[in-house]
Amino acid sequence: MLEGIGYLSLTIWVPIVVGILILATGDDRNAAGQRTLALVGSLLGFLVAVPLWTGFDTATPAIQFEEMAEWIPAFNIWYHLGVDGISMPFVLLNSFTTILVVLAGWQVIRTKVGQYMAAFLIQSGVINGVFAALDGVLFYVFFEAMLIPLYLIIGMWGGPNRVYAAIKFFLYTLLGSLLMLVAMIYLFFQSGGSFEILEWHRVGLTMTAQILLFVAFFFAFAVKVPMWPVHTWLPDAHVEAPTGGSVVLAAITLKVGAYGFLRFTLPIVPDASHELAWLIVAFSLVAVVYIGLVALVQADMKKLIAYSSIAHMGFVTLGFMLFNPLGIEGGLVQMISHGFVSAALFLCIGVMYDRMHSRQIADYGGVANTMPKFAALFMLFAMANAGLPGTSGFVGEFMVVLGAVKVNFWWAAAAALTLIFGAAYTLWMYKRVVFGKVANPHVAELTDIDGREFLVLALLAVCVLAMGLYPLPVTDVMHASVNHLLEHVAHSKLVY
Amino acid sequence: MIPPSTDFLIALPEISLLVVASVVLLIEAYGGSKNAAYITTLLGLLLGCVVVAFAGSPETRLAFGGLYINDAMGATLKVLTCFSAIMAVIYSRQYLADRGMLGGDYLALLLFAVLGMMVMISAAHFLTLYLGLELLSLALYAMVAMRRDDVRASEAAMKYFVLGALASGLLLYGMSLLYGLTGSLELGRIAEVVHGGVKSEKVLVFALVFVVAGLGFKLGAAPFHMWIPDVYHGAPTAVALFVGSAPKLAAFAFAMRLLADGLQPAHGDWQQMLAVMAVASLAIGNLAAIMQTNIKRMLAYSTISHMGFVLLGIMNGSLAGYSGAMFYAVTYVLMSLGGFGMVAYLSRAGVEAEELDDYKGLNAKHPWLAAVMGMFMLSMAGLPPFVGFYAKLTVLQALIGAGWIWLAVVAVMFSLIGAFYYLRVVKLMYFDAPAATDTIPASHAGDAHMLLSANGLAILLLGILPQPLMTLCAYSVQMSLG
After folding, report:
1. A133 vs B contacts (CB less than 8 Å)
2. Residue B294 forms beta bridges with which residues?
3. ipTM of this predicted complex?
4. Whether B427 and A167 lie within 8 Å, measured CB to CB
């Protein structure tokens, strides 16, 4: 550890600094060097995140790797970082995904390579900041700044309708976060002049205030998750974004919303959360059932996976609102698993798109004949998305369903429908794309994945299987923090 | 009575600026080159900064029998005014030179405008306030009309002049009513009388309406905003650049002197007027900006919405609100200078880069300029990590602290709408391919290019470390009012 600079700061600033360095190397004439630099930067970013895992004390729910420095004393704003069992896995997941994204864009991106790589690295650092920030304003700064690189990524390297998708994505998510800003300033005054998130956890609030704060936070996080009915930006953004953008969007940025529920909504307004849990549960179940059906009829593969993401994230928010350890841990495991699986599926679609320049299911068929290695890996991820036991997708869903049974049988029954719908839309898509006769002459000319693509997908396959077979290390990390959170949420902080 | 010599010492910045302005006016008449006038102007403004910094003192002092005040807020605003005038002059040098406008006459007018602002900032008396305001306004009318063969500029100048004169009339009428009510033109004395209770509350409110209307015009707040789009659009870019920068600081000082120094006891009365104006400005500014295709017009409407935010801060009537408004005004000036500076920089002889479409594909040709412009736009939209975010944060914080939560929600909702048109500029620069006929010239003015870079980096740096500027604003306001 460097003197005075903690690992968390490094996970934030290493990617950002490398990203700026890449920008400074100029235009596409230096593309090769820029790619290498980006890979080095993402590897370094992951390396400095590893000690967070190895040095993590799973026995305590306390904040670890804490860093604190004065930032804007005029408003009592601190550069305060720290992780607990809830946030730490996401820093790691994010740093890991960045490597994959850099590798995935290696050959595909041919114009403005430097800006592409820099955008992803800066984005990576900023997202680590979101998960590590313990000061409200610091959190907000990262939370908003995160939008800028993604806006540029979608708009610059996206599909034909990219401008619409980029602006919609930006404004939609900004809508939520601006209300959260008002809520945060309100909390600043309620807590006697503090922007400390942990301090806000302790502030007593009236029911009216709690409900209003709940609504403000709900807007901010529900849009990010995205929950039905504020999900409509996601399919657009996913379809238009380049592969790397879709991967980061699905694997990481959606998790920021769900994380917000655990860091802000539940502990700051526990009474309102209990009061309004039915609403979130209802939205989540609609997402699981209705969006699952919507996914079934999609003709565009990316759109299908986008809707599947919404359905899976519905599971996460459902788990959070059960207020039992199985539900919350299940939701967290589901988040991480979805990070791997959705990233992998978008990468798979990217692999095919790079060759065929089509995402329409109808244009494919019989891919297994020409791309056997790819088909095998794709199969694994499709199964994981459907929640097959033995893959990571199963663990989280199973835990959430178990948790739901304890609360309300019918919730569990409705949620369990996802196992059917998920299997239906994923496997049906897989069947139409990979199996069958080679209907399209272009499919006959496909070449199987090369070493780079194989490496990326194989890394994810290992993660999916490892988490599916032996999830204990992951749940161990969360256990203490989740229990602590539940204990906190169980106590009313109502003032009259 | 002969005023003691310290009075002149207190007014030294203004006096030195007056001397420099006169010298600049004479340089060309006595065979000096245009460059000499330009350099003298810059040095004169720099001298103004230095003199303020040395002559100023944190404690409040009155001079010339209560006409003139020197306090921390005044000193800070004067330094910033001179500084932003320097930036405006450097940004516009090449633009003016290309169009044959760079000369002693233009620069002298500019210096007189700065002098007017400094007088306004130092006013402790309605008379001084009005004199400074008129000196500023007359210089600006003339600057807008500089290109007299240009139809749009002439129209803009005409509109500006007529509406400006009307606003001055309103202001004077309000002041005369206040004089009748309180028996004094001195701001401090008026505050005392109003505090002690006036004979007729009705007349006070009546007078306030006129004074606030005049103020609204000078700030460019709705519903007194009509002149802003036409002037920004019609005036040469260099002039629009100047009109949109330092005078906003003077207008802020004007509001502070008038409302916080003179009429603080009537806070409850003017608060509502300001709240209405602020919401109207946010609505009109942000909604109308969406429809613009000309970047100068778009920035004009964006100014209106930013002034809405400044008004929200002032409306609050607390130290937090005032210092938030001051921080907002200062950062706005910095962003506005950058935005217009870019427009001026990208324009060349015969071509104005003022249509939004001129910015298409800027990133492909000049990635650094696009990045800098992107920073200005995102900062104006109030996104972190740029300084515009903290400006909004301070104002919102003051609002919520005083219990105006609904107003804060309205303000952020309009910023959301505003984000759209700033994003559109980013979209044009980054997502669109450059137009076939390239109107974007290669770098030709090294000084402006460097200043643009510094300006952009300042926006980012102040966004990462906003503390010093925040403290400065809070300290100035605190020392002057607290």
Report:
1. none
2. B355
3. 0.88
4. yes
